[in-house]
Design goal:
two-stranded antiparallel sheet, single chain, mainly alpha, 9 helices, globular
């Protein structure tokens, strides 16, 4: 009986530890608060001067291995945070750099180790995140460029991710440097062109935009796409 009791206690605390890992992005959250402004500007020089902060974040993420028992929100939070953290890692490995596109094939580099798998940013985006039927991920993951959605200066968490994704989407749409919206005319980020299929799963692109825009857009509005500024978001 005693051995069974201790076995139960061990399993109970093991379960608690696994659950804590799934939801604990405190190191990443603290890193973002320290190095990212509310406007999404990243202090890469500050990160370079104290690289241990980022290394600790990456080590904490690589110890977590999502599985089929995780909820969709837990997976979304983990993979979004992981994508953004390793994007910063990619920049720092090549810093100083004026643009992520100055790095050779940046999204195809195999350098993200999660468990026994080593992946690229493209793997995370196209093979995992885009398959989760959540188009708002495009306003949460960041490519370290001025025309990208801004890097939020707080970690995504499973308990808040619904409101976080909605806020990130609304914030991106209302930023007139990235999107200009009027009832009958749109100048949109090329994100809406590159990933057009993702925004049409439950209707048209206009249907999607009207869910998050403060301006009611006509279904017949004319659409143009803005030039993309790939300069570093520093």
């Amino acid at each position: 009986m005693i051995s069974k009791f201790y076995s139960f206690i061990f399993c109970f605390f093991l379960l608690l530890n696994v659950q804590a890992q799934k939801n604990d992005f405190s190191l990443w959250n603290n890193f973002l608060k320290k190095h990212v402004s509310k406007e999404g500007k990243v202090n890469y020089e500050g990160i370079k001067n104290n690289p241990d902060n980022l290394n600790f974040v990456l080590q904490s993420l690589t110890k977590i291995i999502p599985d089929e028992n995780w909820s969709k929100n837990e997976k979304l939070a983990f993979w979004i945070n992981t994508y953004n953290a390793f994007t910063i890692k990619l920049i720092m490995d090549n810093y100083p750099v004026k643009s992520i596109k100055d790095i050779q094939r940046p999204w195809d580099k195999i350098f993200i180790k999660i468990g026994s798998n080593t992946m690229s940013l493209n793997n995370l985006e196209h093979d995992i995140l885009r398959k989760m039927d959540e188009p708002r991920i495009h306003f949460a993951i960041v490519c370290a460029s001025i025309s990208c959605p801004k890097l939020q200066n707080e970690a995504f968490s499973s308990s808040k991710i619904e409101s976080q994704l909605t806020n990130a989407t609304k914030e991106f749409l209302s930023d007139t440097s990235k999107n200009f919206i009027s009832p009958n005319s749109l100048e949109l980020s090329k994100i809406f062109q590159w990933f057009s299929k993702d925004f049409k799963h439950k209707g048209s692109l206009i249907n999607f935009l009207n869910k998050y825009s403060d301006i009611e857009i006509s279904e017949h509005a004319k659409i143009k796409f803005k030039d993309y500024n790939w300069n570093l978001n520093d």
